[in-house]
Every structure is written in structure tokens, then in C-alpha cells.
Automatic annotation (TrEMBL):
<dbReference type="GO" id="GO:0000122">
    <property type="term" value="P:negative regulation of transcription by RNA polymerase II"/>
</dbReference>
<dbReference type="Pfam" id="PF00178">
    <property type="entry name" value="Ets"/>
</dbReference>
<dbReference type="Pfam" id="PF02198">
    <property type="entry name" value="SAM_PNT"/>
</dbReference>
<feature type="region of interest" description="Disordered">
    <location>
        <begin position="79"/>
        <end position="100"/>
    </location>
</feature>
<dbReference type="InterPro" id="IPR036388">
    <property type="entry name" value="WH-like_DNA-bd_sf"/>
</dbReference>
<keyword id="KW-0804">Transcription</keyword>
<feature type="region of interest" description="Disordered">
    <location>
        <begin position="27"/>
        <end position="50"/>
    </location>
</feature>
<dbReference type="InterPro" id="IPR003118">
    <property type="entry name" value="Pointed_dom"/>
</dbReference>
<dbReference type="InterPro" id="IPR046328">
    <property type="entry name" value="ETS_fam"/>
</dbReference>
<keyword id="KW-0805">Transcription regulation</keyword>
<comment type="similarity">
    <text>Belongs to the ETS family.</text>
</comment>
<dbReference type="GO" id="GO:0005634">
    <property type="term" value="C:nucleus"/>
</dbReference>
<protein>
    <recommendedName>
        <fullName>SAM pointed domain-containing Ets transcription factor</fullName>
    </recommendedName>
</protein>
<dbReference type="GO" id="GO:0003700">
    <property type="term" value="F:DNA-binding transcription factor activity"/>
</dbReference>
<keyword id="KW-0238">DNA-binding</keyword>
<feature type="domain" description="ETS">
    <location>
        <begin position="223"/>
        <end position="306"/>
    </location>
</feature>
<dbReference type="InterPro" id="IPR036390">
    <property type="entry name" value="WH_DNA-bd_sf"/>
</dbReference>
Amino acid sequence: MGSASPGLSNVSPGCLLLFPDVAPRTGTEKAASGAMGPEKQEWSPSPPATPEQGLSAFYLSYFNMYPDDSSWVAKVPEARAGEDHPEEPEQCPVIDSQASGSTLDEHSLEQVQSMVVGEVLKDIETACKLLNITADPGDWSPGNVQKWLLWTEHQYRLPPAGKAFQELGGKELCAMSEEQFRQRAPLGGDVLHAHLDIWKSASTSEEGWTDGEVDSSCSGQPIHLWQFLKELLLKPHSYGRFIRWLNKEKGIFKIEDSAQVARLWGVRKNRPAMNYDKLSRSIRQYYKKGIIRKPDISQRLVYQFVHPV
DNA sequence: TAAGAGGAATTTA
DNA sequence: TAAATTCCTCTTA
């Protein structure tokens, strides 16, 4: 299995500190900054200095400023209409207070990192649905490429570059180097290239993640624990260190890092006191409901979906 | 010692 | 009201 491009798999913790102004914020801090100073509206991503570090820092910049999912939905059709103020920042998962500032420990960094990647993947998924394009840029028609360009330009306030990539299909686009992107679009070409890299990584590593099967995040219904677990399992690139399939066909999975899974669940449900003891109690409630059980050969931290997909 | 099991009361959406 | 949370005791590996 080929490793994904630098973007998603190698967001090194050190990179999180590249730009002090994009340090992750706690929910409280975000709320406090909710008044949204003008700098937020004028934010635009700085071109990465190098593909590797730039992309990593870029993720965090992105994570920090990304507007509400719904805000751009309405805006995409008139993306160039000029009235695109970011609205309330997306409610990001509450990040442990120790994760803000320069004393981030490795644990918190990993947590932030996985959240960032998770958010990026989720947003790509949303974009796919709304633009009606596939997650794999290699499959894009020239029309799809234009849609993607328009969306990305709009999201990151990049100068229009659609014309520079006219008639290019996804395959040609993917084959282009960062330098070629820069040549076609001196302003923002590198950022576009970085974004394409993210999409390429996502589509090569997250096979099947766009099927939306357990994408409960936009259903309006409160998420169930079993759905959440499936969500994590569907995104091994982001959460494989925490939870993974042992036998996907049989629905058998293993929680590799119980504390982290519990923490993520607590973040999702806004239950800061969540821990594995409580999470596992909830899992056990599923036994009599026939949703999850222990596998025939019981192992610690290993469970099985009764009705695997 | 962490995980597992399950009772029971409480909270939440 | 269902699902989840919280707290608990006891067992198991």
C-alpha cells in the first residue's frame, strides 16, 4: 500500500507551531473571539514555504478559520458576488486547554492533529456532495475541475484561476507539479496545489469514506455511539491509531486507544468528563439491543457489530 | 490494574 | 421516552 502524499498522513506535531496565530483554541477562546475581528475576514492562507511544512501549517490555518459548513453552500453559486463574509466560526470540538499555547504536549498535539485531519476529510466529503463531484480528483472532468477551483478559490479567497486551468481534466491536474501550478496561477497556485494534494491523499487512503453511510454529523439527529464508532472506523487515516477493524467483513474492531476514543466521543457529545469506563458501559448497553457484542473469542477492547455492513 | 459485566439512578435531546 | 451518562460493585485477565 502506497503511502499517501505528505498532507494527511504526516502532519507532524512540530508543524503545528509554525504559525503562532493559528494555535488551536479552546471553545471558550473561540467564543470570546466570536465577535470576529476584521482580521478574520481578511485572512488568507500563506503559501507554504515547503510542501511539507506548509501543508501541515496550512491545515491548522484552515481548521482555525474555516467557516460554517452551511455558510458556503448558499454562497457557492454566487461565489464571486462579493458579499462573502465568513459567519460564525464553525463550532470546533473543544480542545483541552493544555493544547493551547506553546506547551502542547505530544498527546494533545496528536489529538489536535487527528481532529484537524478529521475536519478536513469531513469538509471534503461535504464539498463532494454539494459540488456533485467524486472525491478522487483523478476522475474529474474539466467541468469538475472548474467547480473545484471555484469552490477552493472562494473558500480561501484566492484570486480566480479557473481560466488558467481551462480544459484540464482531473488526471492532467493531478499530474501537475507545484511549480506548474505556480506558473499557471502565480497567486495562489501553490495553495491550490496543496489543496489538491489533500484531496488526492483523502481519496487514496479513505476508500469508501464518501458513501455517507454513517455520516451522522449532518443528519440533524443526535449521533449514536455505534454510529460514531463506525465513523471513526471509516476514517482509518485519521483515527486508525485509536480504533481499527480487525475483521471488517465480520464487523470486528479493536479500540487501540481507549482514552482517545472516549475523549473524541466526549468532544462530540460535549461531555468533557467522558472516559472509557462510561463509553464501554454505553457499548455494553448495545449487547441486549443486538447492535454490538463481544466476538466469539473475547479479547480486551475488541467488539463486534452484530450487523456488519 | 485496566478492562469487562451489569444494576440502578439520573440526565439529555 | 430512548439513549446515554454516571456511579457503583464485583469479576476477570
